[in-house]
TrEMBL record:
GO terms for cellular component: plasma membrane. It comes from the Bacteria. The chain crosses the membrane at residues 21-40, 60-80, 87-105, 117-136. This is DUF2179 domain-containing protein. It comes from Thermohalobacter berrensis.
């Protein structure tokens, strides 16, 4: 019986790792297409080490994949001691995949042939953001500044997209002095698109909502929310500012797809209830799966 359990566990782990690695390769493929198909033909750059590698490529014509690998090695050596080992392992696999795929997708711009630099910035940014999002959702990155951003996420809870955008300001500044202000400005558009998509993909399409309900029928509302939405309810002690009456306040977290159903429940039970609904960046705990780093 124990042998069967071990076999099931190992096969499950193998399937999980295989799917993660496949998604990591897909993410890097999207990023490579964005680089070689949209950014490089328009003399734009990406963020982080990839952006530095692009600048070196423009100046020396050295292969971008090789430059990415060489720059990333010392960063991985330092970062592996600080961040989660599993994240570092998958990130190293991701970095190798990026270096390889950057060479495989060279010349893909001949098939895209997009001469509009604004469209290149927008759609290149979207592809890049989707690729980065897939990697971060599977606990991987492309190394370099992504690892530094992951450390900031872990220690200071700074959004990955926000952190990367801040770190890349210096890279964009250097590129503007070397290749002109116009490509750098379009690069900023591409990076903004990429990191907005990254944060959205990492958070998931079905975002979470923080709900506060003030109602005299809190017991009935709480019971129905538990039964119909399968979401936990917390009662907070409140006091009316004008009436000075003590009352319980309902606090709960639901998915965005459950908001309309929650509104129906509140309207049916207590149409005069006071309710606020706010977006939540991240939820960790029972009933919610934490994603990303």
């Amino acid at each position: 019986m124990q042998i069967v359990k071990k076999l099931n566990t190992s096969s499950s782990s193998f399937g999980e790792y295989s799917s993660k690695i496949a998604l990591i390769f897909l993410g890097n493929l999207l990023c490579s297409v964005a680089f070689n198909g949209f950014f490089i033909p328009n003399h734009m750059i990406s963020g982080g080490v990839s952006g530095i590698a692009m600048m070196i490529h423009y100046l020396t014509q050295l292969p971008i994949g090789l430059v990415v690998f060489v720059i990333n090695l010392p960063i991985f050596i330092v970062g592996a001691k600080t961040i989660d080992k599993k994240f570092a392992t998958f990130s190293f696999i991701s970095m190798l995949a990026l270096s390889f795929l950057l060479e495989i997708t060279r010349g893909i711009d001949q098939y895209i042939q997009l001469n509009d630099i604004l469209l290149a910035a927008i759609f290149g940014g979207i592809l890049n953001g989707l690729g980065l999002g897939l990697m971060f959702r599977n606990r991987a990155s492309q190394g370099g500044l992504d690892i530094i951003a992951a450390i900031f996420k872990k220690k200071y809870n700074v959004n990955v997209g926000t952190g990367l955008l801040g770190f890349n300001t210096l890279v964009i500044g250097v590129s503007s002095t070397l290749f002109g202000l116009v490509p750098a400005m379009y690069t900023l558009i591409a990076l903004y698109m990429a990191y907005k998509i990254l944060d959205r993909v990492q958070a998931g399409l079905d975002t979470k909502k923080n709900v506060i309900i003030v109602s005299d029928k809190y017991d009935e509302l709480g019971e129905v929310i538990l039964k119909k939405l399968k979401r936990g309810v917390t009662f907070l002690q409140g006091e009316g500012g004008y009436s000075k009456n003590n009352k319980k306040v309902i606090y709960c977290i639901v998915t965005s797809s459950q908001v309309s159903k929650l509104k129906e429940i509140v309207d049916e039970i207590d149409p005069s209830a006071f309710m606020t609904i706010n977006d939540i960046e991240e939820v960790k705990g029972r009933g919610f799966k934490s994603v990303g780093i």
